[in-house]
Write a structure and sequence with these properties.
Elements (H helix, E strand, L loop, with lengths): L1 E6 H11 L5 E7 L9 E3 L6 H6 L16 E7 L8 H5 L6 E8 L7 H19 L5 E6 H8 L7 H20 L5 E3 L9 E7 L6 E3 L6 E10 L1 H4 L2 H18 L2 E8 L6 E8 L6 H11 L1
Parallel strand pairs: 1-2, 1-4, 2-3, 4-5, 5-6, 6-8, 10-11
Antiparallel strand pairs: 7-11, 8-9, 8-12, 10-12
Length: about 290
Amino acid sequence: MAVVIGLGDAGCNIAQRFGEYSEYSVYRIDVDLPKSAANVYNMEEQPTSEAYEKNCPDLKAFFKKIKKQEQVFFIIGGGGKICGAALQVLQQIQRSSLNIIYIKPDINLIGAKKYLLDRIAYNVLQQYSRSGVFDRMYIVSNPSVEESIGDVPVKGYYGKLNEAVVSTLHMINVFKNSKPDFENLSDPENHTRISSYGMIDSETGEEKLFFPLDNIIEKVYYIGINKESMEDAQFFRKLKENMRKKAEEEGVKISYSIYETKYDENYAYVVAHSDKIQSENNLKKSLTSEVE
């Protein structure tokens, strides 16, 4: 289905999770990775972000199995010095569709140096994505993921967050590559390349995006429902009414597709798109509202 490339500690940990699904070919790039593992590249540790950029190795041979027509997801976590190598690595990937998944750390809980490194990478990658160099940039905020899945204990904290990030995007990819039973889909506008995704609460219908995206232009819903709901005309009428209501109240373009599943529970996912570079103001507001 796709290629997943992780750069740095956070990127590699999430990429490794994608390896649990047979649909993905996973590559990891970092320092001190297990040499016996498949598709890993151990970079020489550098003292600064600038040094990682300057001394980025030739990775063309490492990427030689990636076919140009394959979709690529490039995962990187903000705040690490190795982020300095991101653009140099990306230039060496042969692809037809390249998507960035940027993991935004909790900006209130990182030091000044990491905050600066995160801010630089965050803005630069958005600029490149918005200009069309990359197909799309998905922004994921750790605090937003935590809010979506509920309280998470210290033990296995990042594992739980990574599981939610990976399983949600995987299901969206599965739906995208499956024939829907009903669809009202349209391709996103070419200029809406800054995105995030998330889950829908099956009981309340509340949307839980993994980043509080600002200036949303479009939303796409992927809805999995059981056989009983599939045959319920009232359920379908109510669903369509809810979609129309969302479009009117939020002033965004809405599209959706419906798939029959074998699960007892109905579930849904949302992908939101914006045409604006995302600042940290909306994230700070979101974190402040959580505290209040």
